[in-house]
Amino acid sequence: MKSVSITILGIESSCDETSAAICHDGKILSNVIANQLVHQQYGGVVPELASRAHIQNIVPVVDTAFQTANLLTGPEHFLQTLSAISFTQAPGLIGSLLVGCQFAKSLALSLGIPLISVHHMQAHVLANLIDDRKPAFPFLCLTVSGGHTQIVLCESPSSMKVLGETIDDAAGEAFDKSAKLLGLPYPGGPLIDKYAEAGNADRFLFPEPQIPGLNFSFSGLKTSILYFLQEQSGRNKNFIQENMADICSSVQQRIVTILLNKLKKAAMQTGIKEICLAGGVSANSALRKSFEQLGKKYQWSTYIPAFEYCTDNAAMIALTGYYKYLAGDFSELNVSPTARAEW
Q1: HEC profile of 96-143
Q2: How confident is the model at residue 2 (pLDDT cuts 50, 70, 90)?
Q3: Is-above-0.90 flag for pTM?
């Protein structure tokens, strides 16, 4: 008896990327992302502008995802072969979430197929299952993005537990706010990474917060960077420009050590050696390099998604939808997006 194929359309619209992806029997066939450059002139994401851009982008992005998947699988009409539609339900900007949610609900209703709501952070963790080389369960995942910093114990695609998280600001925000203090444009995190390549990470020492357990804190670090720059600039108005590479490298090293020291602690407490990274900040070169070095030192099996699956993307939404489809975990059509939501 021939098994039934499962094809999922995934839609991601939690912040300022409009993305659509096709997952066929657990394999990603397409992953299309439209970025919103309009926010650069404002130094951060403007929610109203983000939701308007999603409205403009979502139809062509979904259409492109279908076309790309067709190129890989033949001339089938995917609308007729879709098994379900998954979408980001939480957390995120409510206006942005509404666009993806309403589109997914309308299309699912018109096709008479199931609707699957996805928690954005669960999807980031499961992005590690996209590539052929996958972690074995249970595994730990350090999920680091602009809005979240968490250590997650993943026992199965549907069973996850947050072991530690930030009590204030996220690591990605610490990167971006530090970049803003240095006069760098938004998004500043990648620019800090770029400047840091030529810098001395040990030139300037910033404090590591002493937070108990496996939780994180970055607000104090941001404050110390602010005071440091104010003091040094008061002595030399050109201090930042003359020392940009060393400052970026020192800031980056401190953020990375904060993250990995907690991850090492979690690995020792649980005894788990299958360790993953996820989230937009996992694209940071220093974090990736230090993570892999730590894995070799402690004999971990380490995993990092490909770059396109680190930042917000629909491939992780589609794959999570696939696993939820297998579990029969569907949503009603009256489901609503939520800006903040626990797992």
Answers
A1: HHHHHHHHHHHHHHHHCCCEEEEEHHHHHHHHHHCCCCCCCCCEEEEE
A2: very low
A3: yes
Tokens describing residue 20: 């659509």
Q: Using one digit for the tens of pLDDT, what is the confidence trace for 221-248?
A: 999 999 999 999 999 999 999 999 999 9
Contact 241, 193 (CB under 8 A): no
Instruction: Please state at what angle helix 189-196 crosses helix 285-298, rounded to 10 degrees.
Output: 70
- Edge-to-edge, what's the strand order for the sheet holding 159-165? 159-165, 149-156, 139-144, 274-278, 301-303
Give the pair of three-digit tokens for residue 310. 């680190």
Angle formed at CA 246 by CA 242 and CA 250, multiple of 5 degrees: 145
Q: Residues, the chain, total?
A: 343
Q: Is the bond into 135 cis (omega within 30 degrees of 0)?
A: no
The identity of residue 123, as a single letter, is A
Reference 339, options 165, 147, 161; nearest CA is 147
CA 146 to CA 310: how far, in whole Å? 12
CA distances from 276 to 53, 88, 159, 220, 283 (A): 32, 22, 16, 27, 13
**Locus of tokens 């220093």:** 286
- Closest by CA to 100, choosing from 21, 20, 8, is 20
User: What structural domains and CATH numbers belong to the chain?
Assistant: 7-127+310-326 (3.30.420.40), 135-304 (3.30.420.40)
The DSSP-derived string for 182-231 is TTPPSS-HHHHHHHHTTS-TTSS--PPP--STT-B--HHHHHHHHHHHHH
What is d(CA 61, CA 52) in angstroms, rounded to the nearest whole number? 14
How far is 100 from 11, CA to CA, in rounded Å?
6
